[in-house]
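Q: What structure does this chain adopt?
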Amino acid sequence: MRTETGTFRIGPIEISSPAVLAPLAGYSDLVFRRLCRRMGCPYCTTEMMLDRCVSINGKQQVTLVATDRDDHPVAGQLVGNQPDVMAAGARQLCAKGFDVIDLNFACPVNKALRRRRGGYLMSDPILVVEIVQAVVEVGKENDKPVTLKVRQRNKNTDDEGNFFTIAQGAYEAGASAITVHARSVEQKYAGPADWDFLRRVKEHFADWVVIGSGDVLTPESALAMVRETGVDAAAVARGALGNPWFFRQVRDVQAGREPRQPTLAEQAEVMREHFDGAVELYGPRKAPSIMRKWGIRYARMHPHPKQVRMAFVAVKKTDDWRAVLDRYYG
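A:
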């Protein structure tokens, strides 16, 4: 429940701002989460992790589950479709030190849907509730809150019955919060999000923490979602990509200030820090290819975005990255 000061709680965890970092596949790794926290983000969720793989010590899984003492509170997000396997994955995340276990029933990508995971399960509310019940039991054993992420419906032509069956079942099972993406699975990210649906969800679950998702692209829109729908917080996704300053800007707007844009020097500093963190997490050979997509995102804030974007597209090694910063950021 959100307080008069704008804070809210997920289980015992108090969160100091109504803008939180959403789980972003391929983006919300430890390195980016640390940057967002430094800019005022109070709560982050990891990339989506397959339930049966979180205990595997392969290189990819090690980077997905990576966290550190400065990365808290943090939710580890699981995706899967079997209650016992999801519960086992949750137990692993508890052992790895995650503060919250989040369950993904919203992912709209074709790979997840073909394998009957993520948003596919919006068509099977009974199974979703069984999964939530199983994971909540693990959460109780380990004193960890459990949350879930869902969408308004599966197909555009569906009614909202499955959503409310899932939400009511999760609420009764003891889930601490629900994140609601106000589009159908079929829509993916196209078209406007239905904020009126968020308002109706919060009215229905007035004493439950509801986090809204969809069309949170600016600091002003994050606060507008909270104000207009009554949700406890807004999950920031695409709006934060290449702009970890988003969370600082939210606090500016809250305080009645114009959101301060980072200077080119500040952008360069953060981008160097981001690159160094990627080298630390992924290694010097893999980091340049991973950071290429980030450079393209950061370029949107530059006075000459197209020119800088094309320069980052050509990055292949560490020296290339540094050369782009030297040339365009001074």
